[in-house]
Amino acid sequence: MSAAAARRSDATADSETPLVLRGRPTRVTASASLPSAVSAAARDAGSRDRVEILIEGVVAERVQLRRARDVGAPPRLRVRLGSSTPPGRYEGSAVVGDSTVPVVIDVQAAPRLRSSPTRFDVTAEPDAPASIEVALTNTGNVPIEIPARSSFCLFDGGGVDHAVWTALTSDPPAGKGRLDVLLDDLAVSHGGLVDVRVREGAGELPPGQGRTCRIELGWSDRLRPGRTYAGSWELAGLRLPIRVATPRDRPRTDKPSSDTPSPDQPSPNQPSPGKPSPDKPARPRTATSARRPR
């Protein structure tokens, strides 16, 4: 038996207990340091190219031996798998230099969504829902359910400052304290719940896939004119910021009635230009003599 084979056999014998790595696919870390025989081989290897993870059906994108800060302490093993690696328990081995150690990778669930665009600015018209389109991509390792209906809160961005200023500068009414004034003013700044309805694209979204969703936003009657509110639609770790502006009140303009003449249209009692009034006789026209040629 060669010296390298002997070292490999010794290392495997010394590490009958598998090394357990646990975490999300993009970051699984050993829960304990490498065995002493493998640690020595790792120090002798001195290169990340000499470290391999051999697990059937799983491809490691990156394998890293993390050196310990304390002098003489054994290194720790960190592995990066594909982000869509399904959760579960995977058994295999790690090859460090000429040594082999059994490993178990416990991949945990990591739901994750990515959106495009990453934020929205909309205008809330009275009694009219807003419609937006967002592309959602499942970048995690488990299916994500996009609900057909959900909700989130809106809050006036300047509400906190105004509430604190009001509570500190005004005299509380009888029977109330400054904290009551603060909370009452904050309640006024609350814009209510936004009714989120996914008209197109609701349902299960598998890992690694994406789709465009058409979303309808319904407003609460708590919204006040001339304000700017902010909130976030949250789903599977995604926080999609949505800023909502409400238009100011417009002065009402009454339409002119049919009895009121416009400046360009004469009233029924007013004669049109060129026509005689019924109360005044028409002025007779006088013939003009033709000019004589000079």
What this model shows, in words?
- The protein is of the alpha+beta class and 294 residues long.
- It folds into two domains: 3-107, no CATH class; 113-245, Immunoglobulin-like (Sandwich).
- It contains four helices and 17 strands.
- Strands 8-10-15-13-12-16-17-9 form an eight-stranded mixed β-sheet. A seven-stranded mixed β-sheet has the order 3-6-7-1-2-5-4.
- The radius of gyration is 39 Å and the shape is elongated.
- The protein starts with a helix and ends in a 49-residue tail after the last strand.
- The model is unreliable at 1-15, 250-255 and 286-290 (pLDDT under 50).
Looking at this protein, list some descriptive labels.
2 domains; disordered N terminus; 38% strand; single chain; alpha+beta; 294 residues
Q: Summed up, what is this model?
A:
This protein is α+β, with helices and mostly antiparallel strands and 294 residues long.
CATH architecture of the largest domain: Sandwich
**Helix content bin:** 10-25%
CATH fold category name of the largest domain: Immunoglobulin-like
Global mean pLDDT: 76
Major β-sheet annotation: 8 strands, mixed
| Oligomer type | single chain
**What separation lies between the terminal Cα atoms?**
143 Å
Tell me the β content: 35-45%
Encode the helix/strand succession as letters: HEEHEEEEEEEEEEHHEEEEE
Number of distinct beta strands: 17
Coarse structural class: alpha+beta
Write the layout of secondary structure elements.
Blueprint: H1 3-14, E1 19-24, E2 27-30, H2 36-45, E3 51-54, E4 60-66, E5 76-81, E6 88-96, E7 99-107, E8 113-116, E9 120-123, E10 130-138, E11 144-146, E12 149-156, H3 159-169, H4 178-189, E13 190-200, E14 203-205, E15 210-218, E16 228-235, E17 238-245
Parallel strand pairs: 1-7, 9-17
Antiparallel strand pairs: 1-2, 2-5, 3-6, 4-5, 6-7, 8-10, 10-15, 11-14, 12-13, 12-16, 13-15, 16-17
